[in-house]
Amino acid sequence: MSDMRIGGLASGMDIDKLVSDLMRAERQPMNKMEQDKQWLEWKRDSYRDVNKQLAELDDMAFEMKLERSYNSKNTSSSDPAVSATATASAGNGTYTLDVKEVATAAYNFSENTITKSGDTFDPDAALSSQQGKLKNGINLTETFSLTTYNEDGSKNQQSFEVQGDKSLNEILKEISESDLGIRAFYDKSADKVMMERTETGNFNQDDTEFLGAEIGFDGSNSFISSTLDIKNGDNSSGSWELNEKGGTDAKFTYNNGLNITSHSNSYTLNGVNFEFNDVTNGNIKVDVSNNVDEAIDNIVEFVDKYNEVIESLGDKTDEKRYRDFPPLTEKQREDMEEREIELWEEKAKSGMLKSDSSIESALNSLRRDWYTPVENSGKYSSMSEIGISTTSNYLDGGKLIIDPDELRAALNEDADSVHDLFAGTDANPGVARRMEESIQAAVTSIEKKAGKSTTVDNNFMLGRRIEDLDKEMDDFQNRLNMIEDRYWSEFGAMEKAISQMNQQSAYIMQNFG
């Protein structure tokens, strides 16, 4: 088919308009196929929206199986020196503690400034250019080792090289980025180097090894002990004493009798995690109780989501289908205002999932999941016993209502039984577990029809129908091209014949007129 055609020069007829009008009639089946494809795509997307809603409900159903949703805890401390958080398994009651010591991180630093008086040391410059500025000099071909300890007393040791082309900050960075758990840095204003453990606690229990230091090094090494002026110990009193500070464990007494030591300022007892912020002046008390308000919020949020989903799905299956409002073609859109298009498509998309068997089956299963009794060893076997029931109005489609007083009373009396009612077991599933199974069945059924965004079209029903339509449309378009070429050929022959007739007429008039 030519992209540019000019007709009517001989006949005076608007051939282009004639062909266009003829092709508009020929194209009607193609318009219908385009509308059918649009309808299938809308239906596919509508199914996927349903699965998205079901997935959100499924995520919440999973949370409702967890103990933490019902047994979250409140904690309060009588002294800010100790704070606490509690897991769902924590026992309620009062915990008495007396913190004697808090855990500290070990640290050691230069005893004196490391730069010569009157000079300025650049920690980022190569050491070869700075050696004359260091008070105690530097050996640029030396290797030194540092040692730290693990919780079980085992050692971590790593060696580092002092070289002229390295700066002090580069060496300290190597130490900080090693696996030793040491943070090392130079402070310009103090003109000293600090080395400190990144963990609190006393891990080196052997006082004969580095005098019990948490950051151990050979005192005969000149770079650490002389250039940086950091010492393991002090012998000025006639006996060696550790220079390093900190590196202590937290020590506390629980319930006036149990003495406990911890490398960190965090310790967990019976599901309660205590954080030691400071020592205490005698006993302090931490109270742990059920956070019923949070449990109620979790259940209310879940029920609200369930009501939202069944209302939405119920509306989709009951929605009226307007068959007189097919999807608009591109030409029809060009002739309409934006608001007209919006109103038209609102009706065109209505009723796509009317009476859909997969959705109606899912709704029936979800409703049944709520009111069927749950077999368990707990106090409650039905939702009505904890204040959750269906509304009396059948038009609500099985929506749930909550009596907050009854729910609060049930949670206060036996939160574990409320959890059992929702979770249950594999053998005797609770409401939330049942809902997961119902949702999965519905999602699987819908995906067979509409797939998901990552599914190849030929792997689901609507996708295969869309592919078939695409093929039909391609074939039909080829046919339309052939028809249009034929029309132009026929009109071209007509133009040629008229042109010849005009020439003959002119010749006769010229010779016999």
Please provide a brief summary of the model.
By secondary structure, this protein is α+β, with helices and mostly antiparallel strands.
Describe the protein's architecture and organization.
The mean pLDDT is about 90. Helix 1 runs antiparallel to helix 11, helix 2 (about 30-65) packs antiparallel against helix 11 (about 460-510) and helix 5 (about 290-320) packs across helix 9 (about 405-425). This protein has a 5-stranded antiparallel β-sheet with strand order 1-15-3-11-12, with no helix packed on it. A 3-stranded antiparallel β-sheet has the order 2-14-13, with no helix packed on it. The chain is of the alpha+beta class. It is about 40% helix and about 20% strand. Strand 7 and strand 8 (about 190-200) form a beta hairpin. It has helices at about 15-25, 30-65, 170-175, 220-225, 290-320, 330-335, 340-350, 355-370, 405-425, 430-450, 460-510; strands at about 75, 80-85, 95-100, 105-110, 140-150, 155-165, 180-185, 190-200, 235, 240, 250-255, 260, 265-270, 270-275, 285-290, 390, 400.
